[in-house]
Specification:
By secondary structure, the chain is an alpha+beta fold. Helix content is 46%, strand content 22%. The chain is built from seven helices and nine strands, in the order ααααββββααβββαββ. It has a five-stranded mixed beta barrel with strand order 5-6-7-9-8. The chain has a four-stranded antiparallel β-sheet with strand order 1-2-3-4.
Length: 276
């Protein structure tokens, strides 16, 4: 009897443990099922995000391809050979945007000879950078004495074996790089002086049986005898009422009956502003 009671007690314990283990297992299954459900939800969300990311990547790839095409086009444009017009305007821009006047020497003809002239001028005149507009600039080609010349908005540029260079003396006509001054000519009455400037034909408003009149440097009038070889050449170079830049020699003739200074043109040195 006692033995029977012990066996029954053991069976009750086993059943109790088994029931408890089953409950825990069911709870574990439930929890794992919930975890699986959460993971499936995350996977679904992740797949949506992945599709969105793929779309974003595709758009970025399209933009990159477009930028590459633009870059290739720009590089091809940059590698395109410059025309002579591009080269001339580029030189003019570089020259006028130099930090100092000394930097400008690399762009001019005969820099060592021109340097003292620039030094003398800028000693009393402050240097400043000048911004130039390269839109709608007139460019005129000339055949000089030994070089091809280009007049670029009153800037004279020389084509050399080493590229284009600025003829500073021809270009800076208003800065007294162009030769003698009015005072020098007046103080040496019997001496001829070389100047370069724009002469304006004034025959439309000046009638004289013996003289032709031209307006030139120093805001003065210059005279030459009619029918002389020099007069005929000037008339062929400068039509009535027009102007032209040339290099010429002048001489002071004293004062006229009205007390005004008289200057004579004695020789045409070059029919252009540039001697090259």
């Amino acid at each position: 009897m006692k033995k029977t009671i012990i066996v029954l007690s053991m069976l009750m314990v086993i059943v109790s443990v088994s029931a408890q283990s089953k409950k825990e297992m069911l709870q574990t299954i439930t929890e794992q099922s919930q975890t699986i459900g959460e993971l499936k939800g995350k996977i679904s969300a992740t797949e949506q995000q992945l599709q969105e990311a793929k779309g974003t990547i595709a758009k970025l790839q399209e933009e990159i391809a477009s930028l590459k095409r633009e870059l290739e086009s720009a590089q091809a444009q940059n590698n395109k050979p410059m025309t002579y017009r591009d080269s001339l305007l580029d030189l003019r821009s570089k020259f006028y945007t130099c930090e100092t006047w000394q930097d400008q020497l690399q762009y001019v003809m005969e820099p060592e000879r021109v340097k003292p002239l620039m030094e003398k001028y800028y000693k009393n005149n402050p240097y400043s950078i000048t911004l130039v507009d390269n839109e709608d600039v007139d460019i005129t080609k000339h055949q000089g004495k030994s070089h091809v010349l280009y007049e670029v908005d009153r800037n004279w540029i020389v084509k050399t074996d080493n590229g284009y260079k600025i003829d500073l003396e021809a270009t800076r006509v208003w800065n007294r790089f162009h030769g003698a001054t009015k005072e020098e000519v007046k103080n040496n009455r019997n001496k001829e002086f070389e100047v370069r400037h724009y002469l304006i034909d004034c025959q439309d408003n000046y009638e004289n049986n013996y003289w032709l009149q031209y307006f030139g440097p120093w805001d003065e009038y210059f005279y030459i005898k009619k029918n002389s070889p020099i007069a005929r050449k000037l008339q062929s170079l400068i039509p009535k009422g027009e102007q032209r830049g040339i290099i010429f020699k002048v001489k002071y003739g004293g004062k006229d009956d009205y007390g005004k200074d008289v200057f004579y043109i004695t020789e045409i040195v070059c029919d252009k502003m540039s001697k090259y």
